[in-house]
Every structure is written in C-alpha cells, then in structure tokens.
Amino acid sequence: MVRHVPVARLDDLPPGTMLMVQVDGTNILLVNHDGTIRAMQGVCSHEYFELDKGFITGDSITCALHLSRFDLLTGEALDPPAELPLQVYPTSVVDGEIVLELPEGAIPVNE
What is the rounded distance in angstroms from the CA atom of residue 58 to the CA atom of residue 89? Predict the structure, then answer.
C-alpha cells in the first residue's frame, strides 16, 4: 500500500534549491532540479549528516561532511566514502502541493 503525503508547497522550493521536511520523524530532502522535484532520504548513507547542509552540483548532491556525492535521480553513491545509495521516493505535484508517495509503515532509509 502507498500513502500520499503532502509535505510542502511548490512555491517554497524554487528551481536549484532544496528543502528538508520530516515525515513520521524521518528527514526527507526535497530538491527542485531544473523544475523536477526529487525526494530522497535526508541524511547521508555514510554517516548521519543532514544533506540540506550540502550543495547541489549538476545532477548530484554533495554531503558537506565528507564530500560524498549522490545522483539526484537514482540516489546512487558516486564518490566515497559513501557506498550505499540514498533511498529515493516518488513525488508528484497536486494543486501546487508537493506530495510524496511513501509505503505504509516505516519509511525506508539506507544507513
């Protein structure tokens, strides 16, 4: 089963920016990548560090702690020391609201 969770207004996330939201105590990072909304786990899979403190470069996000990069589309770890990918979550925009499509129960994250 999938649940649809509105988390932010599209107006709150201009192109090229990111926003951390919480759902059920789990940090989820929203990124407006050239007008496409991406959502992924909000903490680095290498060490617990919030990714909204990092930066977007091209098609990736870089963790500010150890400079691991992750692909914005797939969550794949592109640079060490991170080896595990980030969990990514499907999104949609409904009436100006960013909506996450999450599984029932615990939200999956890689740690």
Answer: 20
